[in-house]
Amino acid sequence: MGQINKELMHKDAPIGVFDSGVGGLTVAREIMRQIPNEKIIYFGDTARVPYGSKSQKTVTRYSEQIVRFLRTFQVKTIVVACNTASAYALDTLEKDIDIPIVDVIKPGAKMATEVTRNGRIGVIATEATISSQMYTKYITNLNRSITIYEKACPLFVPLVEEGLWEDPVTDEIVRRYLTELIDIDIDTLILGCTHYPLIRSTLRRIIGDKVTLVNPAYETAVELRQLLSEMNILNEETPGLGSNQYQFYVSDKAEKFVRFANSIINYGILSAKTVNIEEY
Ligand code: DGL
Fold first, then answer.
1. 200 CB contacts (<8 Å, ≥6 apart)?
2. How many angstroms is it from 109 CA to the middle of ligand 1?
3. 3 C-alpha to center of ligand 1: Å?
């Protein structure tokens, strides 16, 4: 990480959160629940989603643009609320940034090493995240004796975006992807993509009760809270009415984003603004 500049980090400054689209709202939702005083500027790259099938170079360029955009709001920290961007772009983003940056992979990897009993962890994610092997790298760094089985599940994102959270088609696809992980007796499964917590009950039903499901969105909010508290920049005051506590920006299709957001977040999101992210 670059040199942190504490002067830039005010308690009442917002947190910048970004994702390739709507998925990162599962992370934003956890932040809203766990640290309800914080202000959030959310950016969803709805014009260029999905990231999960793109190259590292492209995802890194997109992520750098978004960070430049978010920094125009004087955010005190940035949350990379996308597993693919965390896997592909974090190293580059961290290089010269002077505020803290939190990713979604490290917190999930850490929790999985803490809860596994038989040392066999499964990871499901996009093709990009799996090909980066970032989950394996972080878990192995923490505990060399753990075996990790990674499985790309590219059909889950479109199923979730089509609203098929509880549907026989989703059941069938989940079964196909998870069978090999069930056969090799994992006891912990990391939901390594922002969309997967939304089909958690289907995953639970098919994988069975004995496997612990780790939700990196939840763990990321825990980590963020801890970081803000250690740096003494948790917002202690409840933002007043009219403070625009949560602001949403997208690169395309704002109305569709708002509809989806309201099905995930119980807050009454009225609007999202469209920005031309290529200008950043
Ligand atoms: N947000 C992405 C992730 O967590 C999933 C959607 C996409 O492929 O862009 O990996």
1. 191, 213, 215
2. 17
3. 29
Quote the CA–CA distance of 36 and 279 in Å, as a whole number. 32
Q: Is 153 a catalytic residue?
A: no
Backbone angles phi, psi at 147, to 5 degrees: -100, 135
> Quick check: pTM over 0.70?
yes
Token output for 34? 């766990």
51 C-beta closer than 6 A to ligand 1? yes
For ligand 1, atom 2, name the residue with the nearest CA. Answer: 82
pLDDT, one tens digit per residue, over 154-185 is: 999 999 999 999 999 999 999 999 999 999 99
DSSP single-letter state for residue 103: E
CB count within 10 Å of CB 143 equals 14
Please measure the distance between the N-terminal and C-terminal CA atoms of the chain and give it in whole angstroms. Answer: 22
- Binding site membership of 19 for ligand 1 (Cβ less than 6 Å): yes
For residue 102, name the pLDDT band (cuts at 50, 70, 90): very high
pLDDT for 211-238, tens place per residue?
A: 999 999 999 999 999 999 999 999 988 8
